[in-house]
Design goal:
Radius of gyration: 13 Å
Helix content: 25-40%
Strand content: 25-35%
Strand order of the largest sheet: 1-2-3-4-5
Low-confidence stretches: none
Shape: globular
Structural class: alpha+beta
Mean pLDDT: 96
Number of strands: 5
Order of helices and strands: EEEEHEHH
């Protein structure tokens, strides 16, 4: 697995993407910011990066970004939700009313 610690998350406000560029290829999470709620909608990892831990790396960086900016997250993306299940230490930044959004899916 590669080490992504030094890579910086890029916030692309035009496309509503949180982006991580890895070896010239960009993985991203589609997001929406509403007040202090950060909706993590969809994670896209290009084929070339699959199986290299890129998805996990971008989710981790997105969660850290939310925490640093005092956003609470609404994890719409199943990949993000799966990560949160495995890492309950992030539950504190999940919005208390996240479930009502998830019930609509």
């Amino acid at each position: 697995k590669m080490n992504y610690d030094d890579l910086k998350l890029n916030v692309n406000e035009i496309n509503h993407h949180l982006e991580l560029e890895i070896e010239g290829i960009t993985a991203f999470i589609e997001y929406k910011l509403s007040g202090d709620k950060l909706f993590l909608i969809h994670t896209e990892v290009p084929k070339e990066l699959e199986g290299k831990g890129a998805g996990t790396a971008i989710v981790l960086k997105a969660l850290q970004y939310a925490k640093d900016h005092h956003y609470s997250i609404i994890p719409i993306c199943p990949f993000v939700r799966a990560y949160l299940k495995r890492h309950p230490e992030w539950n504190e930044i999940v919005s208390p009313d996240a479930q009502k959004y998830l019930d609509k899916l």
